[in-house]
Amino acid sequence: MDSGQKLDKPHPRAKANFLSAVTFWCLLFFLTFLKILINWSKIRWTFSLFAKGYKKDLKVEDLYVTLNDHKSARVGDLLEQ
Is 14 in contact with 24 (CB distance < 8 Å)? Predict the structure, then answer.
C-alpha cells in the first residue's frame, strides 16, 4: 500500500549506541522473566500435565474440571456480544 508519502522520521534503533541496545534487550528479558515468575502459579499445572502426558498416555482421571469462565456456553455468549 503506497500512499505516496515519504517517511522522513528515522528509526530510533538506527542511532542507538551499543549500550542502549544491550540495556533494552536486558530489560526486555528481565521483564519477560518477571512476568513468567508472577504467573508461574497460574501455569504450573500446565507443565505438570505436559510432563505426565510425556511419560504416559493421559487418562480422563488426569484431567481437571473446566473452570466456569472457560466453558463453551459462557465463551460462546461472550463471542456473540
Answer: no
Name the residue type at position 28: L
Listed range (7-11, 47-51, 64-68, 74-78) with the worst mean pLDDT:
7-11
Query: Rounded to an integer, what is the distance from CA 44 to the centroid of its chain?
Result: 14
Is the pTM higher than 0.90? The answer reads no
Report the alpha-carbon distance of residue 21 to residue 27 in Å, rounded. Answer: 10
Polymer length in residues for the chain: 81
CA dihedral 24, 30, 33, 34 (to 10 degrees): -120
Pull the grid cell for residue 45: 499445572
Where does residue 22 fall: left (phi above 0), alpha (psi -120 to 50 degrees), or beta otherwise? alpha
